[in-house]
Design a protein that fits this description.
11 helices; mainly alpha
Length: 288
């Protein structure tokens, strides 16, 4: 009876998936531009679009607003709705597909049905969480990279400004000096300037795209100093360089302390394990 239930549920889920694939054909163009490496099985996301077009799985609420905010930072405001929707339909599609396979396989290989269902549910939950938190994780990683490299960027800019170069040229030279995220975002801002975007707007957008509070604070303060004149900007860069390096040293010390604290746990476990072995050996020697 249980096997019949599993196969019935799996078959119903499979039929529903095929129906949604057919209903979602209108969204083929929306998923055709996605990178298959970054978005696995993206051609099947049309099923997720079909689910989200109506009913309880519609894309709305606080989660939708959160995904749109993250997408706006990662992909610009004009693409925020699109990439936020992609994250949502990816989660729906992968969860539906995983559960379908889990029920069918559990029914076919009934002797290990419990194990298959447990693994299937775990993978389904993992897929859903991964899809909905991927942008957040990417943004966190970007923020950490930008924070780590900001002191180097500001120091280089301070040196070049002191040599008499103008800000736009300094920005371009520094952007070409590395390949990490902050340099890529600086190059994008430089390209925007070359394409007619005002310096203020391009640099402000750079701060937003970094996702870093420190970078945004630095960019806003730099633009304010720029309005006061070249001499103010040079002094500002020198002060910022000193402050940021001091902050970086402090963060490194804090990270070292946290790492040392984390190492205490496995060290204690090893110590307790050795102690148990020694005590056990002593008792065994006493008994025999």
């Amino acid at each position: 009876m249980a096997r019949v239930i599993l196969l019935t549920v799996g078959t119903v889920l499979a039929v529903l998936f095929l129906i949604q694939l057919k209903r979602g054909k209108n969204y083929d163009e929306a998923v055709s531009v996605l990178d298959g490496m970054e978005y696995p099985l993206c051609s099947l996301y049309v099923a997720g679009f079909a689910w989200s077009s109506r009913g309880p799985l519609r894309f709305r609420g606080k989660l939708a607003a959160k995904l749109k905010r993250e997408a706006a930072i990662l992909f610009k405001e004009q693409f925020a709705d699109y990439y936020a929707n992609i994250a949502w339909v990816q989660a729906i599609t992968l969860v539906h597909l995983t559960l379908t396979l889990a029920f069918l396989l559990a029914g076919l290989f009934f002797s290990t049905a419990g194990f298959i269902m447990a693994v299937g549910i775990f993978i389904a939950v993992f897929m859903g969480v991964y899809s909905l938190t991927n942008m957040s994780n990417t943004l966190s990683k970007r923020t950490e990279e930008c924070d780590a490299k900001l002191p180097d960027v500001v120091s280089s800019m301070a040196v070049l400004l002191n040599s008499g170069m103008v800000l736009r040229d300094v920005w371009r030279l520094v952007s070409e000096s590395g390949d990490s995220t902050i340099y890529q975002l600086m190059r994008k801002a430089s390209d925007d300037m070359n394409n007619g975007v005002p310096e203020v707007d391009a640099m402000y957008q750079f701060g937003l795209l970094s996702g870093s509070l420190e970078v945004k604070k630095f960019t806003s303060a730099m633009l304010q100093s720029l309005e006061k004149g070249g001499s103010e900007l040079t002094l500002f860069m020198e002060r910022q360089s000193s402050e940021l390096w001091a902050m970086k040293r402090q963060k490194m010390l804090q990270s070292g302390e946290k790492a040392a604290t984390k190492l205490l746990v496995p060290t204690m476990l090893v110590f307790v394990g050795i102690l148990i072995i020694v005590i056990t050996a002593a008792f065994a020697g006493a008994l025999f």
